[in-house]
Design a protein that fits this description.
Layout: H1 42-50, E1 68-70, E2 86-91, E3 96-97, H2 104-112, H3 118-124, E4 138-139, E5 144-149, E6 160-162, E7 167-170, E8 177-179, E9 187-189, E10 197-204, H4 216-231, E11 235-245, E12 250-259, E13 265-274, E14 278-287, H5 294-303, E15 306-307, H6 337-346, H7 350-357, H8 373-382, H9 390-393, E16 398-403, E17 408-412, E18 415-418, H10 427-434, E19 442-446, E20 464-469, E21 487-492, H11 494-501, H12 504-514
Parallel strand pairs: 16-19, 19-20, 20-21
Antiparallel strand pairs: 1-5, 2-5, 2-11, 3-4, 6-7, 7-15, 8-9, 9-10, 10-14, 11-12, 12-13, 13-14, 16-17, 17-18
Helix pairs in contact: 2-3
Length: about 525
């Protein structure tokens, strides 16, 4: 790797050469990953570094190039070898069984690639005479130490992304911020290469400081189960690590290799920190053959995260954040990284994917519609010719129907289409058709000519509902049927407020000029009431 240091090849993390590694422990046999070969260079790489061989700094270092060293920085003579250019990470070691001709120095070389740690081994095992060990003796090992070298552009003072002084972390590179299309409450570093995403979210910490410290193995098993549930046979390998920082706090790390539905090989990683006030998650998604090391990137970013005790709390989100894939995810206030990755690479929502997979061929049928506009939009959005089948409408995860003064539109699975809602027979028919989309998770409606929203009660998976009403709504009993509803917004439409503000004569002229028909000056004999007189 082009790190600017002598022979600093990347070193695999604990357990990185095997599949399904729990809590930095030895993995199941027979499941090796591509990173295994790197471990063969460990001792050679560290010895060469300790000898102090110098190489000129490379300013054209590849993005995301992190040297991950096991051993020690002591004795290195290179001018760039400064502690502030590294992050020290520690992880537990397994016990070691002494073999013939072993010495504590040789054990240090074999286990830590650093014989100089022999005194730590002696102290760990309370050995009065370090030379007196015998074959078969079991020794407890001190923690492994790893030095995660900062990328070239981060060395020295470093670069931080800050938010009002409440927290900071070092960006993986000098990448700009952008909005993540997967979830509005995550942001992403994307750089010039949009095939790689680093998503991050910061929320109130409701799980406790260093939340997974005591039950990390259970967390690994839960994540493994979720990965298999979401990705099925497309999951190849999954790895788990827990490190302790110099501050004593923990950083938790996961990464996995998987295949897309098209057979392409990708990777997803997730790193977590739990502080006194905030919990932070970094999720990386990118092609497996990319020169950017996604797993090191998220680990590095999480390891540099700091929150300031003296500053006020600063979190992200508004308390109503909706996370997908919670049905198979144990941690309701953290995003499901496997669902995010699955949606990102396969370009379809996970809820829709699950629903269509559950429909047997002999259970499918042609959908019968009450009005013509919505099915026309569905055909366009899903690229359907001819009849729309039940399995087709299950692919619809979100729907938005908006009638405004100068424009109408319909959004299906977050893709927007211009439409003219004046062609519907009446708004109640539209609601009946929307109720046929049984897999809807998010629904937003602003149509003036609707008086009965009760069919929405049939959308049992609905988690987010927004209704901006035109006509008076007198019954909200259907909300009791929506057991999974997490966010609900009911209010008068802004269009209706505009209508109410006009004189009768001006309203008649506006209707003629703008072609508005369903919003009205007086409706149901009670102008401007909408949700105001509802008995709940």
């Amino acid at each position: 790797m082009g790190t600017g240091f002598p022979a600093m090849s990347a070193l695999t993390c604990p357990g990185a050469g095997v599949g399904k590694v729990y809590a930095n422990e030895k993995a199941e046999t027979g499941k090796s990953s591509e990173k295994t070969e790197e471990t063969k260079e460990t001792k050679k790489s560290v010895d060469e570094n300790l000898a102090g061989r110098r190489r000129d700094r490379q300013t054209d270092e590849a993005p995301g190039n992190y040297a991950f060293l096991q051993g020690s920085l002591i004795g290195m003579q290179d001018a760039e070898v400064e502690p502030e250019n590294y992050i020290l990470l520690r992880s537990p070691s397994e016990n070691y069984t002494v073999e013939p001709r072993d010495s504590l120095w040789r054990i240090g070389e074999a286990v830590f690639a650093n014989g100089g740690r022999f005194m730590e081994i002696a102290e760990k095992n309370e050995l009065t005479h370090p030379d007196l060990i015998w074959p078969g003796q079991e020794l407890e090992m001190p923690d492994r130490e790893y030095y995660l070298q900062k990328p070239w552009c981060q060395r020295g003072e470093g670069y931080y992304l800050s938010d009002e002084g409440a927290f900071r972390f070092q960006t993986p590179e000098r990448w700009p911020m952008a909005t993540c299309s997967l979830d509005t409450h995550l942001s992403t570093f994307i750089g010039d290469d949009v095939s790689v995403r680093v998503l991050w979210g910061i929320e109130d910490n409701e799980m406790g400081e260093d939340a997974w410290s005591e039950n990390w193995e259970e967390v690994c098993q839960n994540m493994d189960h979720t990965a298999e549930e979401v990705m099925g046979e497309n999951l190849e390998d999954i790895f788990f690590e827990k490190y302790e920082l110099e501050s004593g706090h923990q950083v938790y790390n996961m990464w996995a290799f998987f295949r897309t539905e098209a057979g392409e090989r990708w990777t997803v990683s997730a790193s977590y920190r739990f502080g006194q006030k905030n919990q932070v998650e970094f999720i990386g998604i990118g092609p497996a053959d990319h020169n950017l090391d996604i797993e090191k990137l998220t680990l590095y970013t999480a390891a540099t995260y700091e929150e300031y005790e003296e500053e006020r709390h600063m979190g992200y989100g508004d308390g109503d954040v909706l996370y997908k894939g919670m049905e198979v995810w144990e941690y309701q206030n953290l995003h499901n990284p496997f669902v995010l990755a699955d949606e990102c690479v396969n370009h379809k929502t996970w809820h829709a994917k699950q629903a269509t997979e559950d429909v047997e061929a002999d259970e499918d049928y042609v959908v019968s519609w009450k009005e013509p506009v919505l099915p026309a939009m569905i055909r366009e959005a899903l690229q359907i010719e001819g009849d729309i089948m039940y399995s087709d409408v299950l692919r619809i995860d979100s729907l938005e129907a908006v009638e405004d003064i100068r424009f109408d539109y319909c959004s299906i699975n977050e893709e927007r289409f211009e439409v003219d809602w004046k062609d519907i027979p009446d708004g109640d028919a539209l609601i009946e058709d929307i109720a046929l989309c049984k897999n809807l998770y998010s629904l937003k409606i602003q149509i003036g000519d609707i008086s009965d929203y009760s069919p929405i009660g049939e959308l049992k998976k609905l988690g987010e509902l927004e209704i901006k009403a035109g006509r008076t709504v007198k019954d909200l009993g259907f909300l009791d049927e929506l057991k999974n509803l997490k966010k609900c917004e009911l209010k008068k439409s802004l269009v209706q407020e505009f209508v109410d503000s006009l004189s009768d004569k001006l309203w008649e002229r506006t209707c003629e000029e703008e072609g508005i028909s369903s919003f009205r000056k007086e409706y149901d004999g009670e102008p401007g009431l909408a949700f105001e007189n509802i008995s709940k």
